[in-house]
UniProtKB/TrEMBL annotation:
Function comment: Zinc metalloprotease that mediates intramembrane proteolysis of proteins such as ATF6, ATF6B, SREBF1/SREBP1 and SREBF2/SREBP2. Catalyzes the second step in the proteolytic activation of the sterol regulatory element-binding proteins (SREBPs) SREBF1/SREBP1 and SREBF2/SREBP2: cleaves SREBPs within the first transmembrane segment, thereby releasing the N-terminal segment with a portion of the transmembrane segment attached. Mature N-terminal SREBP fragments shuttle to the nucleus and activate gene transcription.
Superkingdom: Eukaryota
Record's GO cellular component terms: cytoplasm; endomembrane system; membrane
InterPro entries: MBTPS2, Peptidase_M50
Peptidase M50 domain residues: 128-466
E.C. number(s) listed in UniProt: 3.4.24.85
Name by which UniProt lists this protein: Membrane-bound transcription factor site-2 protease
BP terms from Gene Ontology: membrane protein intracellular domain proteolysis; regulation of response to endoplasmic reticulum stress
Transmembrane segment boundaries: 6-24, 74-99, 126-143, 155-173, 193-215, 460-485
UniProt organism field: Lottia gigantea (Giant owl limpet)
Coiled coil: none
GO molecular function annotations of the record: metalloendopeptidase activity
Keywords for this protein: Membrane, Transmembrane, Transmembrane helix
Length: 487
């Protein structure tokens, strides 16, 4: 239902914008001023697309392209090598994926996965996705522009666009200048975009690796985790429950210093039986408030199922090997040392037993140490705790430090790695309308002009390669869409 609403809103917005644009262009009282406005601002509207074109950045591109020309020459030459290697890897990878699909061999992960808001993209992360796409597109086109200036090709202008929900950028290069430069210089221009996308991936990986050190003055790591959110209405929410901003240090004796240990402790509590607590038999007899044993669905309860503070525990003594039951205050009992076996409890002069909570196999009694408050006692399935609480490795040093900043930076970097890497794989494929088409043409002219002087023969080779790349990419996209919607 939510997806249908989103589609209706998007289509309604673009339909309204297109009809309004057509109305203003044809309505005589306003058409002249409106067309003048579009011409002066560089704005244009078409079906499901909005564009902005300008030449104000041309001088900036000129200055950047003339900065350290020898370094830029080496920089974009390395980009050519990367682009050619990436093209070979991308074609082989996509071909192997198609071959394995037709041979009905299992494919663990799709190389190309369409991102559809509301389907496989959470709406809460839509802004990360759109911002990442825009940044990757801008830096991609800036790479083309700087390389073009470096190779004496004029930049006519730069533009941004929004197609349905997908933002992007483009650069307008002089085709006359571009066609007369050598194939190697063309390659430096054509490969600059994917080369910059690859640099974005490396930069995002570096930021993720250095993030604990970059945030060290403001956040503490390696000692505990911090709660970033608690599902409202869950069993651990409320005034006496967990709250965002509190540090978590342990779960029933299992130390928690990072997210991995948090998940590991929850998994351990699911696999293992509920832990007991060492209690002197005299203290058990003193605290026991059992009215009588009640049997319900093969579950023994000695607290009448009504107490909020007491829980039924079982134990056995040396004198009587039969199981005994006691209704004990849960908090007082869990304050005692943890035990798994009876042998874990011993004292020189008094008898101490291991008292286990009487719960079913899926229910666990967990003691969660958090902040400066008394430990929280959780009675339920540990998976509910996992689904109700989100944690982060970065504990703010004071209340003024943003709690969600590390998560935002991490998420943004992960999107940069994913989307910018996908743009590399996509753009280097020798397919019509992609950078790979022009990279392939320039490379064939560079390598085959001396060995195959006939232009038509080279053109035939180029056409066959582009046709193969187009079909290859089309099949992968169809397969990815089929997997997304029907598998």
């Amino acid at each position: 239902m939510l997806t249908t609403t989103w589609i209706a809103l998007v289509l309604g917005f673009w339909s309204t914008l297109y009809l309004l644009d057509a109305f203003l262009k044809t309505k005589k009282p306003w058409s002249r001023n409106y067309l003048s406005f579009l011409e002066n601002t560089g704005l244009s509207v078409s079906i499901c697309q909005f564009r902005w074109y300008t030449s104000v950045f041309n001088r900036t591109f000129l200055r950047l392209g003339q900065w350290r020309p020898q370094f830029l020459r080496l920089w974009f030459t390395v980009g050519v090598l990367f682009g050619l290697v990436a093209m070979l890897i991308s074609v082989c990878m996509l071909t192997l994926l198609i071959v394995n699909t037709f041979r009905q061999q299992p494919v663990e992960q799709q190389v190309l996965t369409p991102v559809m808001p509301g389907i496989n993209l959470p709406t809460s992360q839509l802004w990360y996705y759109l911002l990442t796409l825009l940044i990757c597109g801008i830096l991609h086109e800036v790479g083309h522009a700087i390389a073009a200036v470096r190779e004496q090709v004029r930049v006519n202008g730069f533009g941004l666009f929004m197609f349905v929900l997908y933002p992007g950028a483009y650069v307008d290069l002089s085709s006359e200048h571009l066609n007369v430069v050598s194939p190697l210089r063309q390659l430096r221009i054509y490969c600059a975009g994917v080369w910059h996308n690859f640099i974005i991936v490396l930069a995002a990986i570096l930021v993720l690796f250095l993030l604990p050190y970059l945030l060290m003055p403001f956040y503490t790591t390696g000692q505990s985790v911090v709660i970033t959110s608690v599902v409202e209405g869950s069993s651990v929410s409320g005034p006496r429950g967990l709250a965002a901003g509190e540090p978590l240090t342990s779960i029933s004796g299992c130390q928690v210093t990072n997210q991995e240990e948090w998940y590991s402790c929850i998994s351990q509590s699911i696999r293992e039986q509920s832990l007991g607590h060492c209690m002197p038999t005299a203290l058990i007899q003193e605290l026991d408030s059992s009215p009588k044993l009640i049997y319900s669905k093969n579950i023994i309860d000695c607290c009448n199922f009504t107490s909020d503070t007491h829980l039924c525990f079982l134990y056995h003594t040396r004198a009587s090997p039969n199981q005994k039951y006691a209704c004990l205050p849960a908090r007082t009992t869990t304050d005692r040392p943890v035990c798994k076996l009876q042998t874990d409890c011993h004292a020189p002069k008094i008898e101490i037993v291991c008292a286990y909570p009487m719960v079913d196999n899926s229910t666990k009694l967990l003691r969660i140490n958090h902040g400066r408050k008394p430990p929280l006692l959780f009675l339920g399935h540990p998976l509910d705790l996992h689904l109700s609480v989100s944690v982060s490795n970065y504990v703010p040093n004071n209340s003024y430090v943003p709690l969600h900043l590390p998560y935002m930076v991490e998420t943004f970097c992960k999107y940069l790695i994913s989307l910018s890497g996908a743009l590399v794989i996509l753009n280097v494929v020798p397919c019509y309308a992609l950078d790979g088409q022009f990279i392939c043409h320039a490379f064939l002219e560079l390598t085959l002009r001396s060995t195959i002087p006939d232009r038509e023969t080279r053109g035939l080779i180029y056409t066959l390669i582009i046709l193969y790349g187009t079909i290859l990419l089309g099949l992968n996209v169809i397969m990815a869409m089929w997997t997304l919607f029907f598998v």
